[in-house]
UniProtKB/TrEMBL annotation:
UniProt keyword annotations, A-Z: Carbohydrate metabolism, Cellulose degradation, Glycosidase, Hydrolase, Polysaccharide degradation, Signal
Keyword Metal-binding in record: no
InterPro entries named in the record: GH45_Enzymes (IPR052288), Glyco_hydro_45 (IPR000334), RlpA-like_sf (IPR036908)
Signal peptide: 1-24
Enzyme class, spelled out: hydrolase
Family classification: Belongs to the glycosyl hydrolase 45 (cellulase K) family.
GO molecular function: cellulase activity
Lineage of source species: Eukaryota, Fungi, Dikarya, Ascomycota, Pezizomycotina
Domain of life: Eukaryota
Reactions catalysed: Endohydrolysis of (1->4)-beta-D-glucosidic linkages in cellulose, lichenin and cereal beta-D-glucans
Protein name: cellulase
GO biological process, any: cellulose catabolic process
SUPFAM superfamilies recorded: Barwin-like endoglucanases
Pfam family, one: Glyco_hydro_45
Organism: Didymosphaeria variabile
Length: 216
């Protein structure tokens, strides 16, 4: 999927743009960001969710790709978020990552997640401390829970947690290592408590991302 992203980076808009493979949308606008890491199978991981070549892969509790048909670990199934969906920095001003996306119907022409699943977006941060930094994300998930603004919920391990305990089941740890609801872990030191495969992405939040709160 990274290859798909890279090929499409060359068709970018000034603010953010999406590639024209799964939908013929080429849009830009303002957006807000949040963070998530719920360990659930990503919404764009379901078959026929969008006209894509292949849904987003989900992983077993061994962090190996599962059958596309496997149900979500957040509802009794065996498919969880793969650890390789965490963000990584290329340099001080540029990172890659994955996001749960919601785009207002006014921009999509009324379309919903089939229009953005697997699309890539360039985000130019416009608020401090991230102003001047850029990130390219692939929409691997959908963020329908808040639908009053364009939103990119960045997949950051330990970046947020909600009431269910899928992360605990996936990694066989206590859910509390993933931090508290709506905040996640509270310091870079706490990243050391996460499963090893997730620690780098957790640290990214305190380094490159400067633990920014809801940057635009
Ligand atoms: C998207 O729209 C912009 C601005 O209208 C244009 O410059 C760009 O070529 C378009 N890209 C694609 C892939 O259609
Ligand atoms: C955590 O997720 C919830 C639910 O999507 C959201 O309301 C909240 O703003 C998120 N917190 C952060 C810091 O992104
Ligand atoms: C950071 O990496 C991006 C992507 O490779 C590149 O376009 C940019 O010039 C780099 N910036 C610096 C300061 O090296």
């Amino acid at each position: 999927m990274t290859a798909l992203c890279l090929r499409d980076i060359f068709a970018l808009l000034i603010l953010f743009a999406l590639h024209a493979r799964s939908a013929s949308l080429n849009i830009s606008g303002e957006a807000v960001t949040t963070r998530f890491w719920d360990c659930c199978k990503p919404s764009c991981g379901w078959k026929e969710k969008a006209p894509f070549d292949r849904p987003v892969l989900s992983c077993s509790i061994d962090d190996k790709p599962t059958d596309i048909e496997a149900g979500t670990g957040c509802n009794g199934g065996s498919a969880y978020l793969c650890s390789n969906q965490q963000p990584w920095a290329i340099n001080d001003t540029f990172s890659y990552g994955f996001a749960g996306v919601f785009i207002m119907p006014g921009l999509t022409g009324g379309k919903i997640e089939d229009a953005w699943c697997c699309a890539c977006y360039r985000m130019d941060f416009t608020s401090d401390p991230l102003r001047g930094k850029t990130m390219i994300v692939q929409a691997s998930n959908t963020a329908y829970d808040i639908n009053t603004a364009n939103r990119f919920s960045l997949a950051v391990p330990g970046g947020n947690t909600t009431s269910h305990d899928a992360c605990a089941r996936q990694y066989g740890v206590d859910q509390t290592v993933f931090g508290t609801d709506n905040t996640g872990v509270s310091s870079k030191d706490d990243c050391k408590k996460l499963p090893e495969a997730l620690q780098k992405g957790c640290q990214w939040r305190f380094d490159w991302y400067e633990d920014a709160g809801f940057p635009t």
